[in-house]
Structure formats: structure tokens, C-alpha cells
Amino acid sequence: MAAQKRAVRVGVAAIIPDAQGRVLTGRRKGSTGSGRWAFPGGHQEFGESYFQCAEREVLEETGLDVRALTTVALTNDVFQDEGLHYVTIHVKCKKLNPDQEPKVLEPNKCEGWQWTTWAELREILGKPDGHNQLFLPIVNLLLENSDIERTIDSGQSLQ
């Protein structure tokens, strides 16, 4: 049996702030990072832009209509135990209808959605088992971007 070639994949995470500055997070289920809090998102498909990917994944997972606005960060996410390696593109998105709330449209992949503050995410990360409560792209985003809220609020971009 030939050895399978490992590849780096592209993941897209949608950061969707609400009017209070909280961001949408969901507890993953049934795949890599199961039981951990993550942003909506997924794999970028061939021929798809990362903005298109963010908008598609959010709609598929939550039913929210969003507009991808800007790329705010990249993280290098190596899941050692699973033998997976992703570059995750974190995309700021805006809800097109501010009154619309997320729904669990993929119950086999997400336990539920909630609005979470950056302070709450940092508090989780600071716990002894915090790295096991947050999905690796969020861990790396917080560790590598100490002022991510300001970056998102200011509309700064990597582009």
C-alpha cells in the first residue's frame, strides 16, 4: 500500500460580530475539534474565493445571510494527533439582517450557536484546559493577535 501524501488544506473561519461586539461561536461535534468552541466555517472549495467560502459556510451552518468584508488574520493550524495541517483564513463578516439569529442547520456538526465576547474566549484560553475547549484556529488567533478586537473593529485587513 502506497503512503498517502500529506497536504496542507485551506480552512476559512467567519468572524461575525453582533451590535455588542460579541462574535458567533458554536460547539463542534462529530469531527476534528469535537467539543470545542469554533467560528462558523469550513474548507475552501476549488475555484471558490475565501469570501465566497465564508458566506457559503455561514449560510449552510447557521442560515445567516452575511457579507464577507475583509481578511483579518491567518493562522497555521497543525492538528498533530489527527495528522492534519490547515492554513485558516479568518474573514470578518457582517450580518445582512441585524435581527436574524443563527440556527443549528447541521446538528451532526454543531451542538449550538451562541454570541461570545472576546474576553470570554480569552478567559477560556487562560484556563488550565483552555486549549482543549477552543478549536485550534481560535487558540492560534488569540495567541498571535493580542488586539484582534481592535483589528476587527477598525476594519484593518491583510489585503
From TrEMBL:
It comes from Phialemonium thermophilum. Residues 5-141 form the Nudix hydrolase domain. Signal peptide: none annotated. Belongs to the Nudix hydrolase family. It holds the Pfam family NUDIX. It comes from the Eukaryota. Keywords: Hydrolase. SUPFAM superfamilies: Nudix. This is Nudix hydrolase domain-containing protein.
